[in-house]
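Lab notebook: predicted structure, single chain.

Context: the supervisor wants predicted structures on file for every construct in the current expression panel, including those that have not yet been purified. This is the next one on the list. No modifications to the sequence; it matches the entry in the shared construct table.
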Amino acid sequence: MKFLLVFDFDHTIIDENSDTWIVKCAPEKKLPNGLRNSYQPGHWTEYMGRVFVYLGDNGVKEDEMKRTMTAIPFTAGMIDLLGFIGENKELFDCIIVSDSNTVFIDWILKAADFHKVFDEVFTNPAAFSSTGYLTVQHFHAHHCAKCPKNLCKRKVLKEFLDKQLERGVNYTQLVYIGDGGNDLCPVMFLKKNDIAMPRQGYTLEKKISQLAQSLSPVQCSVLVWSSAIDIMSYLKLLIKE
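Prediction complete. Output recorded below exactly as produced.
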């Protein structure tokens, strides 16, 4: 009996978007209009690359970025939930699949001492260059028309499950916890016994209910959450069964 918990990061584990939060480091805490308007749909990673160049050009250093990022609040109840998962690691494997980046997620999880809760983090690789600029790359290449160019979460999930099967790990149930439009693709991959947990009032919940209205509902069960305590209550029921 082992369960796989799949978490998104922005607006799920943390109560903000890490990529837009970093703008607090910019002069006057905002970006110039030209840069802000340079975003093209599906090319968020490239846009963030330009944001990091702008921050570097304005003398924003790694330690300032780190101080800013580790001040992001966790979502309501999330600290309790992650503590609970950490105490029950023999029952739960836990991964993050996120369109943020390795540097931000690493900083935030380590500062709160939650990095040990997660078995793997799948996100865009980032690093500081020799000149002190943060650089970010695409997580992978894929052929999914529904997803942003740099990341198809369904592909990540499928490859992870295949690798686990090779190691002899087969999960009783998958629990997918997210909020965004890019979480729909992996949710549609879930089976009847699995459960999707979209955050109340966010894009993923709306997209799942649109599918139900158009009579092509997702296969898995759906349980909406507003506080991570809702998720913890569900997990407690799971392990009692």
